[in-house]
Design brief:
Layout: H1 3-16, H2 25-32, H3 36-47, H4 51-69, E1 70-71, H5 74-80, H6 86-97, H7 101-108, E2 116-117, H8 118-124, H9 129-142
Parallel strand pairs: 1-2
Helix pairs in contact: 1-2, 2-3, 4-7
């Protein structure tokens, strides 16, 4: 596999899993088949910014969309886009846009469609974290303790055939289920 294609696989993983707070340089570099330091140099050479800068820009773009369109608090948006620290999120957001998240919302809200209620936005993004925490607490108190498997993300899972994702596979196409029956 050529160098550009390997780096593109890793960039696609960042585009797909941008909201995963556990997304780190090692996981992304493994997608490309590089060591973290070699991947860092190769990615910067190909795209003009480090993988961390690219991922931060993707997350800030998503946060801008949520601030304009969803009725969620800044803290909720911070966690939904993959930041674990509100301070880091606010500092990076201001460095990128020139405004704090609250200032950005004040300036840009009302210039488009009505805000999506926060409950719908949270469900769309994967649910309410406090509800899941409560479910885990309830399960722990009613069941015997069990060893939890490590959290799996799409970036950490190995894709069975990465070539097929780019259309240059061996020609085997999945059956088209939309065909009409005779």
């Amino acid at each position: 596999m050529d160098k550009v294609r390997q780096i593109r696989l890793a960039k696609d993983a960042m585009d797909r899993d941008w909201a995963d707070p556990g997304l780190d340089l090692d996981a992304v570099a493994a997608h490309a088949g590089y060591s973290r330091f070699h991947f860092l140099r190769a990615f910067k050479e190909a795209y003009g910014e480090t993988p961390g800068q690219y991922l931060t820009h993707r997350r800030i773009e998503r946060a801008e969309e949520m601030l304009r369109g969803a009725d969620l608090s800044v803290t909720e948006i911070c966690h939904l886009v993959g930041f674990s620290s509100l301070g880091t999120f606010s500092a990076r957001f201001k460095a990128r846009t020139g405004l704090t998240p609250s200032e950005y919302r004040t300036r840009h809200v009302g210039r488009g469609a009505a805000l999506i209620p926060g409950c719908y936005a949270m469900l769309w993004a994967g649910g309410f974290p406090t509800t899941r925490a409560a479910e885990r607490t309830t399960k722990r108190t009613t069941q015997a303790p069990a060893k939890r498997p490590p959290k799996r993300t799409a970036t950490l899972e190995k894709r069975p055939d990465p070539a097929a994702a780019y259309g240059d596979g061996d020609g085997d196409e999945p059956p088209d289920d939309r065909r009409a029956e005779p």
